[in-house]
Design goal:
Blueprint: H1 3-23, H2 26-33, H3 38-45, H4 47-52, H5 55-65, H6 69-87, H7 93-120, H8 125-149, H9 157-173, H10 188-191, H11 196-200, H12 205-234, H13 240-287, H14 294-302, H15 304-322, H16 328-357, E1 359-360, E2 363-364, H17 366-384, H18 399-405
Antiparallel strand pairs: 1-2
Helix pairs in contact: 1-7, 1-8, 1-9, 2-3, 2-12, 3-16, 5-7, 5-16, 6-7, 6-9, 7-16, 8-13, 8-15, 12-13, 12-16, 12-17, 13-14, 13-15, 13-17, 15-16
Length: 406
């Protein structure tokens, strides 16, 4: 691995350590310690979605047109560290929601920025990106193991840990390879929030279907991110945060296998496999328990590698291949807006409503909750399978050609 790839891998490690340190257990802290309702937990989990709606602006306008990507990353992580620390000190729903929302406005755009910076430093993203991105998974794993081993799941300490690493990440970003904007700043007035050329990408049938499927699958996805740690703790699973890192370990292995699967399955069946894994996971959660059927919970956790890598990482590579060079960051930002923005925002609201609907005393009817999310995932899969073309799609027009066709 070259020096540049090592530096990019370290960036990914810190990027996802931060997210894994606070996001997995924040619902448990809010429900068990602060006694928030299921609806409130879902809404707070949805702050990441609100932050993601601003990713296209920062990625498509600022990073593509005005400032070097590594500098934008640095500022966002340092400012974000302050908001994370403030969140850890709050006790009421309104205060937690407000401070965490401000943090997510800083953090969520950095996901697309980190990808964009990495793609800019590579010559073959399909072959190279997996080996770099896999360190992000390792960061999430390390965060979960530390928090689980220290029994911090129901406390605010994970937020403080994430704040400290976020500050260090901001400093580290200043040492990353210089990645200046590709597009001319003068065009910003004409393109606005979403460059018209980037929106033109969705005139391509396969790209449009992929975007719709990505939006829809993010709705049931939020059940997992917002409530799995709380679910495992409530049914008596010990060291739930540590066990949940099994999903990231499988993600790490699947990430390394992405080039191999790409050659044999192609984009369509990589995406189909990812969606099918979500259906399987929720079915396993619905009928597993912490005693005789613990193996079902383990399997539901372990399929995370297929759930995430085969759909979302494959999708990131797919978008990078479809978009022209000068619009790749904008295209990634637009997909983040559709998925981690609108899709997960709707998912956070609906998942919270479903969980609250199945509240039983001081706990929840988890089987019904997971069946609802399994059925929702299955519907998306059934709609996607006959719609997305298997054959190789023709190359999209260049930016100049796209502009001439409008």
């Amino acid at each position: 691995m070259t020096g540049t790839k090592i530096r990019l891998s370290a960036m990914m490690f810190f990027e996802y350590f931060i997210w894994g340190a606070w996001y997995v257990t924040v619902g448990t802290w809010m429900s068990s310690t602060l006694h928030f309702s299921g609806q409130q937990v879902g809404l707070v989990a949805g702050t990441t979605a609100v932050g993601a709606t601003f990713a296209p602006f920062l990625v498509g306008l600022i990073a593509d047109k005005y400032f070097a990507t590594e500098k934008v990353l640095a500022v966002l992580h340092i400012v974000g560290a302050v908001f994370l620390l403030l969140t850890s000190q709050q006790k009421t729903f309104g205060a937690v929601y407000a401070t965490l929302l401000l943090y997510c406005l800083c953090y969520m755009p950095t996901l697309a920025l980190a990808n964009s910076l990495s793609f800019r430093q590579m010559t073959d993203t399909k072959a190279e990106f997996g080996a770099v991105r896999v360190l992000g998974t390792a960061g999430w794993i390390v965060a979960g193991i530390i928090i689980g081993a220290m029994k911090l799941e129901a406390t605010a300490q994970p937020l403080r840990m994430a704040a400290a690493v976020s500050f260090l990440m901001g400093l580290y970003c200043l040492t990353l390879p210089h990645t200046p904007p590709l597009a001319k700043a003068e065009s910003a007035k004409q393109t606005g929030l979403f460059p018209k050329e980037a929106l033109f990408l969705f005139k391509d049938r396969s790209m449009a279907i992929f975007a719709i499927a990505s939006f829809l699958i993010c709705i049931p996805l939020q059940f997992y991110y917002a409530f799995t740690n709380l679910f495992l703790n409530q049914i008596g699973v010990t060291n739930a945060a540590g066990k949940m890192t099994g999903g990231q370990i499988s993600e790490l292995l699947c990430m390394l296998l992405i080039p191999w699967f790409f050659r044999r399955l192609g984009v369509k069946y990589m995406l189909v496999s990812g969606m099918l894994a979500w259906v399987l996971r929720y079915a396993l959660f619905a009928y597993g328990d912490a005693s005789g059927k613990m193996w079902m919970l383990w399997l539901g956790i372990i399929v995370h590698g297929i759930c995430y890598d085969f759909f979302f990482v494959t999708g990131q590579i797919y978008v990078d291949q479809k978009a022209p060079n000068s619009l790749r960051a904008a295209a990634q930002g637009l997909i983040y807006f559709i998925t981690y923005g609108v899709g997960m925002f709707l998912g956070s609201w609906l998942s919270g409503a479903v969980v609250e609907h199945y509240a039983v005393g001081s706990g929840y009817d988890w089987r019904s909750i997971w069946i609802v999310s399994a059925v929702a995932s299955l519907i998306v899969l059934v709609l996607f399978l006959p719609s997305f073309p298997k054959e190789k799609e023709p190359a999209l027009p260049s930016v100049e050609e796209a502009a001439m066709l409008k």
